[in-house]
Design goal:
By secondary structure, this protein is an all-alpha fold. Helices cover 70% and strands 0% of the residues.
Length: 71
């Protein structure tokens, strides 16, 4: 269920936001209550993988939604 929702939202919210939320929810399911570490790990992973893939490997991922004005 969560993977299908992730796949549906990646085009709408972009890779960074969707991956961050997906990981944050997953971490909270596994380690309830450790919000700070979950937020830090999800944020660093989402941004790190995005910029590594787009800049180093010259791939293409939807970063942020265009309506957010950050792209």
């Amino acid at each position: 269920g969560a993977a299908v929702l992730y796949a549906c939202l990646i085009e709408v919210l972009g890779y960074i936001i969707t991956t961050f939320l997906f990981l944050l929810i997953g971490f909270q399911v596994m380690q309830r209550g450790q919000w700070i570490s979950s937020i830090l790990i999800a944020g660093v992973f989402s941004i790190g993988v995005y910029y590594g893939y787009v800049n180093l490997l010259e791939g293409n991922l939807p970063g942020f939604p265009s309506w957010l004005g950050l792209s």
